[in-house]
Amino acid sequence: MALDLKTLRVRSITAAVFVIVLLSSIYFSYFSFIGLFFLVSIWALHEFYSLAEKMGAKPFAGIGMISGILAFMSIYSLQLTQNNFDIKLMRYAVYLVPFIVALKFLFSKNEQSFQDMAFTIAGIFYCIIPFALLIKIPVAETGTVNELAASYDHFKILGIIFLIWANDTFAYLGGSLIGKHKLYERVSPGKTWEGTVVGIILCVAVGFVLNMNETFSSKWVWPLIALFVGVFSTLGDLIESQMKRKAGVKDSGTLMPGHGGILDRFDSLLFVSPFVFVVLKLLQENI
């Protein structure tokens, strides 16, 4: 088959722009980091609802998007030490989300309204909460906005993303060289057990290399994060592949020509973020 130079050029340009925007936003400042992942989470939710519609549901997209914004802002505000009225309002807004969606369910005339409500809420859990937790990882546990900005350590996020890329690369190479047994052929025919194991082992090895930055006092934190990255980034990819298969589409969206949508690019990070957040919280006194 002849090499399609036009397609290759489009994919290369899109990939370059994606990497530059992602890494520069994380590196530049705490505020550009938050802004990027707020936009990413909202766009991911939009793509999730589009996939849900292709699967036969009719999620309450408008209500879901508003609820998603409230949920993101509320989770972010939990680490703020200010107690003025607008912060309090932001902090407790998330408790209104189930009731807002339930009211829409109550007055819906669709016979499958319970399924629609379930997809609406699932989208918030799948797309919003992981990124809202991600922005809490590289900063102090609590503080004012300026104090959080001053404590921002971009290397923690860059390290997690680098581990995801390393795991994907090593898993692909391992599968290509020695892969024989399919991991989950019905969902992702290209993944093998051998490639997955190679990806996890070498990802953990990269975790030890990241210790050179001395982000954590314990030399086991990065390797432990790498282990979780290796396992849960693979699961995240499989789950998104399953959704696309059920929806009958190749990509979750068309935002990035040649590379699909936001969910296609961040499916691994969506699953990795909550687990890394929990691990770091559990280890907080020892790192």
Report on this model:
With 287 residues, the protein is an all-alpha fold. It folds into 2 domains: 30-151, no CATH class; 154-287, no CATH class. It has helices at 5-28, 30-54, 61-77, 85-92, 97-107, 113-134, 145-151, 154-178, 193-210, 221-247, 262-282, and strands at 182-184, 188-192. The protein has a two-stranded antiparallel ribbon with strand order 1-2. The chain has 11 helices and 2 strands, in the order ααααααααββααα. The protein is 71% helix and 3% strand. The model has no long low-confidence stretch (mean pLDDT 91). The N and C termini lie far apart (52 Å).
Quick overview:
The chain is mostly helical and 287 residues long. The chain is built from eleven helices and two strands; from the N terminus they run ααααααααββααα. It has helices spanning 5-28, 30-54, 61-77, 85-92, 97-107, 113-134, 145-151, 154-178, 193-210, 221-247, 262-282, and strands at 182-184, 188-192.
